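quick one, 191 residues, struct below
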Amino acid sequence: SVSDDGRMDIWRYYERGGMLTEDRDRDSDGRIDYSAHFAPATGSLISFSRDTDFDGQFDLWVRYLGNDRWMESWDRNRDGAADFVFTFRGPASLLKTLGFDPLETTDLRPVVPSAQWLEVDLDDSYDNRFDSWTRYKEGRVYETGVDATGDGIPDKWEKVPAAPGAAEPTPSRQAPVERQDEAPAAPSPEA
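---
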């Protein structure tokens, strides 16, 4: 597609009649700042990347599994590497309602009650290795992990006890497995 200034601003790539990728230049500076990838068999959105501040590098990556927004990764310090990963499984409508933005949001309490499973991984030292992991299950913090040695691998996991009388959530140490061959249509991201 060509914008009012005569420059290309949308590029679409197809294979066997199905769109694979759509790239966009949303601010007409000649650089791609949005890139979406689709399952060729179904046309379903699999993932997209955005340059939210138009500085020439992507700082938001979103991957879908089914109709749920599955994982958002953010580069908060603009070094090109994700340092905040928010993995979510629950009602797809919840994240849109919350307008979740890790650059602005530090309080996850509105997200937790509706999440079937939620994990937040942080690199607060900005050394491209995660420092802490918090897992939520059935509306509460279930366990936390800490990297004390700086290698990006949790050295210590600690289960957080439930309130007296509350049932323990079912343990889960893995995020859902991505199956691109069965990805149904996902909501179109704002581009």
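The helical segments are 92-98.
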